[in-house]
Structures are given as structure tokens and as C-alpha cells.
Amino acid sequence: MSLRPLFAGIEDIAELLESGTAVLTPNRRLSRAVGDAQHQYRLTKGDQVWPSSSILPLRQFWIERWRHAVTRGLIEPKVLVDAAAQRLIWRKVIDADEAVPFSLLSPSRAANLCQEASETLALWRINLDDKAVRQSFSFDEDSRAFLRWESRFREVLLDLDAVTPEQALEELLTCPDALGQSVALLSQDDLPPLHQALCEASPTWQQLTLPHRTAQLLPTRAFSDPAAELQMAARWCREQHERDPLGRYAVVLSDMHSDRDRLEYYLRKEFDCLTQDYASLPVNFATGFTLDRVPLVRDALRILEFSLPEVAVESVIAVLQSRFIKPLTYRKTHRERCIRRLRDLAKERIPQRVMRSVLDDLLDKEACELPWDVVLQLETNGSWHRRPRTPSQWLEPFRAILSAWGWSRGATLDSLEYQQAVQWQEALDSFATQDLFAGALTLPEAIQSLRELLSEQQFQPRTEDQAIQVLGPLETTGLRFDAMWITGMSAERWPAAAQPNPYLPHGLQREQGMPHADAGWERRWAKARWDHWLAGAGEIQASYVNQRDGAEALPSPLIVEVPSKLESEDWTVDERWLVQASKAAFDRVVLNSVPLAKDERAFQGVGASVLEQQSACPFQAFSATRLQATQTPALTAGLLASERGTLLHRALYDVWGSLRDSTQLASITDAELTPVIQRALDYAQLGLLKERLDVIGGDMIALERQRLDVVLRRWLALERERTEEFVVTGREEPREHQLGDLRLRLRIDRVDRLSDGRELIIDYKSGAIGSIKQWLGERPARPQLPLYALLEPPAAGITYASLKPGSEGFKGIGEQEFIKGIESADKQLEDEQSGGMEALRHGWIEELTLLANEFVSGHSPVDPRIDACRYCQRFSLCRLGEELA
User: Fold this and answer.
1) How many CA atoms lie within 13 A of 272 on its CB side?
2) Which of 117, 599, 638, 722 has the most CB atoms lying inside 10 A of its own CB?
3) How is residue 290 annotated by DSSP?
4) pLDDT higher than threshold 70 for residue 743
5) Per DSSP, which regions of 211-319 are E strands?
6) For residue 371, what are the contacts with CB-CB under 8 A and spacing of at least 6?
7) How many CB atoms lie within 10 A of CB 624?
8) % of the chain beyond a pLDDT of 90
């Protein structure tokens, strides 16, 4: 059996349709519903064949009449400029205006608003040549600018022998012979003056009364969270559909742009259509996705943007993983490393040459031709992207780029993806027609223009009629539903706040009753919509969110007549999932320790950080070292903290390679020190990846060099104050050390030999150090320097060297206080203990060996110290805070 019809009044207009009268509707959805109802009505009467009827949206019908008149020679033929082309012309007019007295934050947004303003003026038949009208535009800078732009806009259209749709309809009014068909308007809404004049100029016209019924109003439901409102609406849809599968149900979203995607997810969850039964969802959506957001087209745009000077890192990673790209021949061991390299750049966008450098190491050049090499062959000089072209001329390079990457050849397209591909080709055809308005565009301008064109086109999959409709407030007009759920019915959203066009005088908008002009218009419009819903549904459920930014929100004043009090209701777990969970059997997962294998023990990267992680939390050491679960670098505008540390360490390495000891440091003058520091900074800069240097830019490096120059001079001044002579005998010295069952590979920043032959181990720090008390006791934190104290021959002291501006100095432990900031080892021992550094070493051997053996044995419980989770960010692995059932 078929679903109940969405339009219930076909019997009342059947005679009009049979007589050839055109039935005009306010939207395309109602036109389709009337057409389907007529089809069923004719079949019920026993008709097999019947003449086609004119059932069209109002604006489309008049445009068709204009085209018909042009074809018959009744109206001079002109180019019809659609909304996208109009915005393009507006943008060029605005960009070319040198008399703008203000700075536009978004020229594209300004062009959109100007296009809307121009269309509204035409619909309300406002003559801008009228002196009184022009005077009303003279009191505001925005309005004066619009008048200037509008004049130029008309000149451009005149030069192109083109008209907007509204101008075409105004011409249609001057040709009575073109208005030869009677019309009937299936709507009670007020018409703009231009459409009203067209109706009145027709041979006959009438305004039909829509079928009316009185809806039963259910108690208004209030939710504390927007997601809860949409979740409950989705559950309501399922319950209604299960109760009567042949019924008609609607969810009206007051904010289709924000809520549509979330509601679709909740509907799919309720109807169990998230995976295998994805295409069986019994729901039609009034709006789909903009074409630039659908996966197939989105990846095509990403590939085209690879030809721009800068490329989005996420786009590169997404394309490498896209199913629509013909599989490229990767070096198998390089793919994850390539993605890691891209993320390690810590930038949202990177230069194109950097992207090529990274991908050159990933792709097997012998097995496949590199896509950018194919693109460069478009012209022998490789400068195809530098020459401006018209939109139609850009199509050949665009298609060549996509072909080089194997776009749309990666996998067999399903039905929805095939529809996307067809609409993509249609969009390219539309893009080519912009030659007349756009002129020659650079590559960035062409890609941006294509993206804007795609963002204005809705991809609405062709699906069968379904029982449940998700609609916006305007799209319910004339449709009949058994039940309707209306969201967002709070006082602050319904009626909405007025949004007058900023380029039109507010007084003119209010006087003419233009859309969104003032609060009065918004209230009248909202009340009319509410009356339509009451007349078109058997049952209405209204809902709203009663909390906004911590403040209480009230229901819309338009629904205060609901004969029931409000009930506060929060989302609860679906009983189906509770039943399923109660029947399921869960086995407790026992995590057994997995000792290190031989190849893991020989892993080159195991250093002192392993002991620090094992001390902080055993699971942290396991996930970071054995699972290689490292955090993705955060996006930053300049150098990373790790890069600043690298530059500092390398600069100090080179400085002491030149100075060598305290004697030379004391004797060198500031003038002689300058080339030493500059040479050290040159050497330090070589330690950064070339890709990062390209990404960061020379200005940022120059600033960092200036900062390091100051840091080094301040530090060397402090080193000059040391009273005991020293010689730097070790710089970035590699060491190996066996600790229990674990062999560690270490690198000591610096070793000083003092005047009596004893050694001092120094570790540079550019940030906070903390207290040396953290080295003592069980599970010593930051055990790097205590580990260095166990090396042979034993050092007389271990110390941090803090180069943090304003906090420069030493902090450590030694056999004696031979530098300010290095405390005596005996002071760190308990009162009854003695033995100095030797006693401390004995304790560190015991504690650090225990940590090393725990790591080797696979001991990895989630057991963090108080501060261990602050910078770990591995909660998705350890699931800390979740309670086991």
C-alpha cells in the first residue's frame, strides 16, 4: 500500500488543471506534492493518459513565460543572469570601487547582501531613479555606497545585454501577449508587488484556499540541551512510524543549517540505519548538503588546491586516504612516516614545495608518475598556472589535474556518488558560462570562484517518497501531515530577531513591508507559519531549549494558547539499548604483562625518557615507547617548544666548541664574542628541518636568532661569575648504560672538568626546572640527571643549567657547593645518614633499576602520579576516569 498523499485538496483544483489553468505554488515541494496527488487522482478515475498540467513554483512559472515570449519573438532576447553570476558581478564592482569610505571585512559577504538588496528592490518595484527614493539612500554611508555600486551593476548588465530574473519579469509585464495563461495561486501568503502585478496582468487569476484542518496541540516540551531536543524528535519519528507506517510525519527545524546533520544522525541511530541499512532510512530531507561538502566533490577541490602556493595539511592527508583517488604506489614503510612528517610541521597550511618534498619520499617514482609532474606537462614551460584564463579555459587544466591524481577512479561509485559526479559535471558547465561575467581569472581566483559556485548548489539525492519529512518552516506550506514536531519554539528564536538589509534604508524597508525589516514583520511572518501548521497537521508537538548560556529561556509567545503546562524533560537512554545491555555478557578483560622482545630491547630510541615515563605512570611509558602513541603537535604560528630547545642546545654546543674553558671565556671581549655567537646561531639553524624552515619563514627565524643572541650573552655573563676554573670536556656526548635488564642510550649536554680533576654534568633547560627534591624517594620524577650520576667515572655533581630569561642559574646536587645553586649531597640525606653523592647513587641505583626492570617486564598499569596526566593526553588509550561495570 502507498503512503497517504501529502496534498489533500486535489479534488478542488482538478477542474482548473484540466482547463489548462496554471497552478502556482510557493515552493517546489508543494508543486511535487500536487503533481503526485493529481497522478493518483487520475488513476483512481481510471484515466490512462492525460495532458500534462502546469504545476510550478511561482517564480519558475513566470521565468518560463519570459523564455517562451523570447522564443516567440515577443521580447528582445537577452542573457539571463542567475544569482551566482550576479554575485560575481557585484564582487567585481565592489572591488573596483576606489571611493569606498570604509574597509570591508568580507567583500564576498558584501556582494551577497547587495545581490539580495537588488533583488528585493526589484520585487517591490522600487524605482531608484526617483528623486525621493534616492534621497532616502543619502543618509547612510552603506546605502550611498550601494547606490553607486548598483548604478555600475546596471551598466555592466547593459554592456553584456543581460538581465536579472526580476528585470526579465518586469519586461514580461510590458508584453500582454506573453501573459496568455490563466493562473491560480495555491497560497494565502502575501505576494511581492512584482509577482502580484504579474498575476493581475494574467487573463484571469485567483487565490485558492488551502485545505484546512484543526490540529490537536500536545503539551509543549522543554529540553535543557539542543541535542536532547533532536534526539527526542528522532525517537518520536520512529514511534510514529512504527504505529502507522502509511502515515505522514514531519519534523520542522527552525535552524536547518545547524540542526540538519545532527538530526540525521539521531534518525539513523533510531532506525538502525548507520551501517548496513544506510539507504533504508524512511526520511526525506528538504535540504541536502552543499555540493562542495559532499565527499566526491570535496576531494576534487582539495586536489585542485594542491596547485596553489600554499596547501592545507589536512587536505593532503585526507587525499592520501581518499577512496576516490586511484591508488598511488606507496613505499609501504613510508606512509605513516609521511603523515607524521606532515603533522610534525605543526602548521595548518604549508608551501606547495614542502608538500612535494614530503610526498616525493612517499611515492615510488619508478612504479608511478608523480601527479605534479604530469600536471607540469600541461605546458612545456611549466607555467600553466601563472597565466589568467576565462572560467571555460580553466576546465581543461582542472580536468588534467584530477586525471593525474586518478580522481573518481579509486573505487566504484555507488548511486549517491554517481549523482554527485553528474551534478559536479553540471556545475562545471555552469562555471564555464561565467566567461561573460568573470573575464580572465588567476588560478586562485578560478578555484575560489568554483568553490563559491559549488557552495551555492544543494546536493539533494534522488530518493523515493518517504513517510517522514524533515523540513524548514517555509516548506510545509500546503502539505498535509498526520503529526508534526516543531523544534526551536523558544521566545528568542520564534519570532526571530529582525535582520534588515544593511545596504537599504531601514525606513524604506519598514514602509514597504520588506522581509525581515523589523520585529513587526517577523512576528506577522511567524504567526502566519504557525497558522499554516495548525491548518495542515492532525497533531502538533512543539519543543524548545529552556537553557541558553546559563539563562532560562521561555517558550514562544505564539504557543501560549497550548492548553497544558510546560514539562521539563531531559533525554534518557533508549529502553531498547538498556534491554540489549542487560542481555549481553561481558567478560572482564585481564591485561597481562608483555615483556620486551629482543628487538625491542635493542630499540635505538630508548633513553632516559623511558624511566621518566615509567616513574610518572607505567602505562605512559608503555604507550609512548612501545605503542609509539605520540601526541600530534599543536598548530603554532612560530617555532615549537622542542625546536626552541634544539636551537638552544646546538648554539651552546658550538659556543663551547669555540670557547672551550673558563680562561678563554674570561678573556674574550664583547666585540670578539659577537662572531662566535653568530657562528653558533648559524650552526643551530642547520638543526631545523628544511621543511620547517620553509614553513616558519625567514622573519620568524630572524626574530628567534635575536632572542637567542640575548639569551646566550646573559648566560655567558653568568658563567663568567664562576669562581672555580673549568674546562668543557664533553658536548652532546653519547653514552650507553646498562641498568638492570635495560640498555639505555644517553646523550649528555655538557661535562665540565673542574680544577681538581673532578667532573660536573650539566643539563640545559630553557623552561621551568622544579625542585631537586623530586629526585629523591620512590619513583623519582625527572630521573635523567640521577641516571647520569650512575655513569662511570662518577661525577662530582649533577646540575640543571636554567637559561630561562629572568631565572638564569644552576640547580643541582654535588659533593660540595662549588657553584651557587648546587647544594651539598649531605644536605639531601636524612639526618642519620651520610656518605654524600655515593649514598645518593646507591639509592638511585635501587630505584631506577626497579623502574627499568618494570619496563622490560611489561609492567604497565594505569597508575599515574598526581601531575602525570597534565601533559600526557593519552586518555583515549588509558580510559582514565571510566568505571568498569
Assistant:
1) 3
2) 117
3) E
4) yes
5) 216-217, 221-223, 249-252, 283-285, 289-290, 310-312
6) 306, 328, 401, 404, 405
7) 20
8) 38
In a 3-state reduction of DSSP, which class is residue 500? coil
Cα pseudo-dihedral 418, 421, 426, 432, rounded to 10: -170
Residue 585 clears pLDDT 60, i.e. is over it:
no
The stretches of 622-689 forming alpha helices (DSSP H) are 641-659, 662-667, 670-685
Look at residue 435 in the predicted model and tell me its pLDDT: 85
Residue 787: pLDDT over 90:
yes
Position 301 scores a pLDDT of 94
d(Cα 526, Cα 494) in Å, to the nearest integer? Answer: 7
> Is the separation of the CB atoms in 822 and 814 below 8 Å?
yes
Nearest one of 865, 872, 725, 706 to 781, comparing CA atoms = 865
CB-based burial label for 242 (10 Å; 0-12, 13-18, 19+): exposed
Which triple of cell numbers denotes residue 643? 625546536
219: cis peptide before it, omega within 30°?
Answer: no
For the residues 627-654, what does the mean pLDDT come to? 86
Q: What is the mean pLDDT of residues 50-57?
A: 88
First to last CA, the chain: 47
Instruction: Tell me what percent of the residues of the chain surpass a pLDDT of 70.
Output: 90
* Greater pLDDT, 581 or 438: 438
Which helix (H) or strand (E) segment is 338 a member of? helix 335-344
What are the residue ranges of helices labelled H in 380-518?
Answer: 391-404, 415-432, 435-438, 443-455, 506-512
CATH 3.30.460.30, domain 216-288+463-568, yes or no:
no
Cβ contacts of 619 within 8 Å, gap of 6 or more: 860, 861, 862, 863, 864, 874, 877, 878
Q: Report which of 792, 796, 788, 801 is spatially closest to residue 844, judged by C-alpha positions.
A: 788
Q: Is the pLDDT reported for residue 318 higher than 70?
A: yes
Mean pLDDT of 229-241: 93
Residue 5: cis peptide before it, omega within 30 degrees of 0? no
Contact 498, 528 (CB under 8 A): no
Enumerate residues 6+ apart whose C-beta is below 8 A from 730.
748, 750, 751
Determine contact, residues 482/297, Cβ cutoff 8 Å: no
d(CA 817, CA 663): 21
Beta strands in 276-403, from DSSP E residues, in sequence order? 283-285, 289-290, 310-312, 349-351
Residue 834: all three cell numbers together: 651520610
| Helical ranges in 137-219 per DSSP H | 141-160, 165-173, 193-201
Whether 653 shows a pLDDT value over 90: the answer reads yes
Q: State the alpha helices, DSSP H only, in 74-192.
A: 83-96, 107-123, 131-136, 141-160, 165-173
Q: Which of 866, 714, 711 is nearest to 779 (CA)?
A: 866
Is 21 strand, coil or helix?
A: coil
At 376, list the grid cell.
607540469
Burial of 712 (0-12, 13-18, 19+ CB in 10 A): buried
Q: Which fold has domain 637-857?
A: Lambda Exonuclease; Chain A (3.90.320)
The pLDDT of residue 369 is: 64
Domain boundaries, the chain: 10-74+178-207, 79-160, 216-288+463-568, 290-459, 637-857
Closest CA to 541 of 495, 472, 487, 491: 487
- pLDDT the model gives residue 482: 93
Residue 697 and residue 700: Cα distance in Å, rounded? 6
Rounded to 5°, the CA angle 639-641-642 comes to 100
Of 512, 448, 435, 504, which Cα lies nearest the Cα of 149? 504
Per-residue pLDDT of 463-492, as tens digits, reads 678 899 999 888 888 889 999 999 999 888
pLDDT-derived band of residue 380, with 50, 70 and 90 as boundaries?
Answer: very low
Do 843 and 592 contact (CB within 8 A), yes or no? no
Q: Looking at residue 561, what is its pLDDT?
A: 59
Q: What is the mean pLDDT of the chain?
A: 85
pLDDT of residue 332: 59
